[in-house]
Amino acid sequence: MSRADTDTLVTIVPFIFGATAVYSVQEVILPTVPNVSKTESLVMELLRVRWIFDVVSSGSASQKAGGFLSFNTVRESNEVANNTKIIEDVIETANFAFATTSTEFTTSGSRTYQPDITVDLTDGKGNGLVLATRKLDVVIGRQGGTNNDGMRAELFYKLKRIKNTTFTAILGQQLSNV
Predict the structure, then answer these.
(1) Mind giving me the DSSP string for 124-169?
(2) Which domains can be identified in the chain, with CATH numbers?
(3) What are the distances in angstroms from CA 133 to CA 55, 63, 64, 121, 158?
(4) What does the alpha-carbon distance between residue 72 and residue 89 come to, in Å, rounded to a whole number?
């Protein structure tokens, strides 16, 4: 059985953009179990994230959309998205697994689309990002557009047992990013 056969997938509920420049935020509770035994904790090892851009209608304007994961975002759903906030999001150390996509509206009425984006979080040896926190924020933002397009994230992960001392160290590092 290959490593990919053992990966678990969770699809985050699609975000639908109604306004032209907003953020959507969803908190995901992770399957982390501290102290599953006297010496070990059970954590989520995030292997990759697939961002899927869903087009509901053709609309009448160009748009840019993007998403990222965060240990603790400062963004809120329905908050206005702008270039300054996007730059803040990129430099924030608690944010990771960024992806952006865009659609262009042409005078012929057609649009061009970017395909799904997969962000690989492994080290080249199949080891992913170990998450010791209890939650993760999925953040999606959009600028432009006039339709109800959406974006969703699929998280591919496996559960992993790690030593409690390692768990505590990773948790401390991830919480220092909040």
Answers:
(1) SSS--EEE-SSEEEEEEEEEE-SS--EEEEEEEEEEEEEEHHHHHH
(2) 3-175 (2.60.120)
(3) 33, 33, 30, 17, 15
(4) 11
Which three-class secondary structure state does DSSP give residue 38?
coil
pLDDT per residue as tens digits for the range 75-123: 988 888 888 888 899 899 889 999 887 766 666 656 556 678 899 999 9
DSSP E strands, the chain: 8-11, 15-16, 23-29, 40-54, 63-70, 95-105, 111-112, 117-120, 129-131, 135-144, 150-163
Please give the structure tokens belonging to residue 94. 């608690």
Q: pLDDT per residue over 2-57, tens digit each?
A: 444 456 766 665 565 555 678 888 888 888 888 888 999 999 999 999 988 775 54
